[in-house]
Each structure stands twice: as C-alpha cells, then as structure tokens.
Design a protein that fits this description.
The chain is of the alpha/beta class and 398 residues long. The protein folds into 2 domains: 144 residues, Aspartate Aminotransferase, domain 1 (Alpha-Beta Complex); 221 residues, Aspartate Aminotransferase, domain 2, CATH 3.40.640. Helices cover 41% and strands 13% of the residues. A 7-stranded mixed beta sheet has the order 2-8-7-6-5-3-4, with helices on both faces. A 3-stranded antiparallel beta sheet has the order 9-12-11. The longest helix is centred in the C-terminal third of the chain and has 22 residues. Bound molecules: pyridoxal-5'-phosphate. The site of pyridoxal-5'-phosphate has 13 residues, from helix 5.
C-alpha cells in the first residue's frame, strides 16, 4: 500500500521551512522578497570557532566515528559551563551531544514517551514541539499563555492541565516565537507545581540563553529538587551563529541521557566530529563575538518595536529575548484590499508576501492564529524596509 505511516501523516511540514521555500520561489521569479521567516542568525560563525574546525581537519585525528554521546572533553566543558554559568551541578555523563537541539528534543521524546502519554506544551510554542510529541504517538496538551500575560503560562494554568497521563512539560525561555523570558520567580513557581507531582519531567529549552536582554538567565534545573526532573536542551545554533554546523545537546539525569544515547546510537551514531571540535572552541572560547551579536539584536528589537507601534491595529508584547516578535494582527481579519480578503494568519502572511514582498510565518504553526512571527535576525536596512512595506500594504486594507 502506497501510504505513509500514521505517525508521519499526523504531523505537518515545518511551517517556517515551508514559508522560507515559498519566499525562495518568489525570489527565483525575480521578486525582491525580504525574508523574516527563518530563525537564523544573519551573522557569520565567529572566526576562532571556524579556525578550530580547520585545525581539527588538519590534525587528522577526528575522522573516525566519535563516541555516541559526544567527545568526553566537549561534554566535560559543557558540564563546567553549566556549573559555573547556570548554577546546575551537571557532570559530563549527563550530556548527550546531537545534530542540533532539534535532534536532542527528538531523542528525548523517543526515549521517554509511550503512545497515550501526555506532554504539556506551553503555547505559543516552537513549531517542532507539537510535531515531535505526535511522532512518538503521545498527545500534546496545549496550554496557552495570552498576550496580556506576555504569552506566559501561569502555574495555575499548568496545574489545571496535569492529569495522571502527564509525563512531561516543554517550553523555551527565552521563547521562540514570543521572545518572552520567564523570570526567576516565575520559573520557581512552575518548579513548585512540578515538584508536587512525582515523576513529572520538564523539558527546558534554553537554546536562546545568550540572547536574553533581561540580564538574568535562569535554568529551572538549578532549583532544589529539579535536577532529577529536568531535561535541559541547548545548542550552538543561535548564540554562536552556527545553525548549519548542527550541534545541540541535552543535559539530563543519567537514566534519561542513557536512553537518548540508545536512540542516537541507532539513528545517527553520533554528531559530526569536526562540528564538535568547533563547538568545543565555542564553549571554551571568547564570548566577545556572541555579546556583540546580542547587542546588535537588542538594538534591532528597539527598532522593530518602534516601527511596529506605528502600524495601526498591530498589538505586540515587548520581547525580552531571542530574536522574534509575535504580534497579534487579528484586527486585520475580515479586511480586504478589494481583491483579497484576509480571514486568518495564513492569509495575512500570504497577503504580505504577495503585496509587500515580506516573508513572515503564520502564528497558527506556533499555536496562536491571531498572531504572526517576525524574525529580526536580519539587517537594520532590511528590517526598516520590511516594516515600511508592511505598513504600506496594510494601509490598503479596509
Ligand atoms: C526553541 C528552539 N529550540 C530548538 C531549535 C533547534 O535548534 P537546532 O538548530 O540546534 O536544531 C530552535 C531552532 O529554531 C528553536 O527555536
């Protein structure tokens, strides 16, 4: 029978990648599209990291399969980092290095979930959480934080969603797509709910930890009792502009790390050897280039925030991290330029692509169809032009 598995039928193509493909298609037709759809730093990987990769090739020592969990010196360095910077007493044995944080999350889900288990997904959520839970035939339980609360789920909302089937909760902070950052107090209160339920786990995605404008990045694993309950997810793609190198990792209680190793050993054997040597240079080297990028993101956030405020009918929070805005554009639903009527977020993004030549992602893919996601990992010049085009195109809607 020519039919894909139920597991694959149950998940959608990645909306962000789909939008990027559409934008590329417009570009090949000679249309000057400004792409604000991908969560991809527009910076180059810092030089010292690239040099470390070149050196590893020249040394000729890294051509064999690496250990499944990653090179011991890299995992040791990650443990040091978490002890010093995040106040979490992880050891090297707690780390599994994978082909990007995306695979780290997939490994975790495959290692932990059975069909019928429930995973509470804080919404708005990163597109792949929902899909990866479904891939294991577990059930995502979406709990939505509203824009009025900076899109943050409250401890009360979390507790109301817990059932005997709940195995884990998952969220990112700083958050993709909203840019929201949980404060120490907020994370403490979430941890307090989790600790009331024996065995309940937290998958805490910290991949945007460096791009945090609040001045404090808090790991939920650092609270008393949470070390045994947390799978911390992190990676190099965002803070070090290393999306293409594909290095991410989890840190977790040893029994979970062992499970992830088992999955990884069967699926990919290990993460690319040379990319791991580059990652080691990133984690042990100068954070200056990262800090420079972060300052650039901070000034772009101000720019985009001020320009968005000038567009009537757009409601936005003030993102404290990552490099996204997730504005509510629902006041435009039902409006038309005479040819095209915008019914929902998909239509809004399609209108913006066709009319304004700006690529955005519909919020439905992240759990909120009233919103759209705008990535400001783009040059100031492109951002100014894109926001101008948005304003002009929206002014034609009545
Ligand atoms: C919240 C979040 N987690 C994980 C990832 C995946 O990161 P990687 O490129 O390391 O697979 C992304 C990438 O967009 C992300 O936004």
């Amino acid at each position: 029978m020519n039919k894909l598995s139920n597991r694959i039928e149950a998940i959608q193509e990645s909306a962000t990648l789909a939008m990027a493909a559409k934008a590329r298609e417009f570009k090949t037709r000679g249309i000057d599209v400004i792409g604000l759809s991908l969560g991809e730093p527009d910076f180059k990987t810092p030089l010292h990291i690239c040099e470390a990769a070149k050196k590893a090739i020249d040394e000729g020592k890294y051509f064999a399969y690496p250990p499944v969990a990653g090179y011991p010196d890299l995992r040791e360095a990650l443990a040091n980092k978490y002890q010093k910077e995040n106040n979490v007493p992880y050891k090297a044995e707690n780390f599994v290095v994978s082909n990007g944080a995306k695979q780290s999350i997939a490994n975790t889900m495959l290692a932990l979930l059975n069909p019928g288990d429930e995973v509470i997904v804080f919404s708005p959520y990163w597109v792949s959480y929902d899909a990866l839970v479904r891939l294991t035939e577990a059930t995502p339980v979406i709990v939505k934080g509203g824009i009025e609360n900076d899109f943050k789920v409250t401890p009360g909302q979390l507790e109301a969603a817990i059932t005997p089937k709940t195995k884990a909760i998952i969220f990112s902070s700083p958050c993709n797509p909203t840019g929201s950052v949980f404060s120490r107090k907020e994370l403490h209160d979430i941890a307090a709910v989790v600790l009331k339920y024996p065995g309940l786990l937290v998958i805490a995605d910290e991949i945007y930890e460096h791009i945090n404008f609040t001045g404090e990045q808090v790991s939920i694993a650092s609270f008393p009792g949470m070390l045994d309950r947390t799978i911390t997810v992190n990676g190099f793609a965002k803070g070090f502009a290393m999306t293409g190198w594909r290095v991410g990792y989890i840190a977790a209680p040893k029994w979970i790390a062992d499970g992830c190793n088992k999955v990884q050993g069967q699926i990919t054997s290990a993460n690319c050897s040379i990319a791991q040597r580059a990652a080691l240079a990133a984690i042990t080297g100068d954070l200056g280039p990262t800090h420079k990028m972060v300052e650039e993101y901070r000034s772009r956030r101000e720019l985009v925030y001020n320009l968005l405020k000038e567009i009537p009918g757009i409601k936005t929070n003030y993102p404290e991290g990552a490099f996204y805005f997730f504005p509510d554009v629902s006041s435009y639903f039902g409006k038309s330029d005479g040819n095209f009527t915008i019914k929902d977020g998909d239509d809004f993004c399609m209108y913006m692509l066709e009319k304004g030549h700006v690529a955005l992602v519909p919020g439905g893919a992240f759990g909120d169809d009233n919103c759209i996601r705008l990535s400001y990992a783009a040059s100031e010049k492109d951002l100014k032009e894109a926001l101008k085009r948005m304003k002009t195109a929206l002014a034609e809607l009545h």
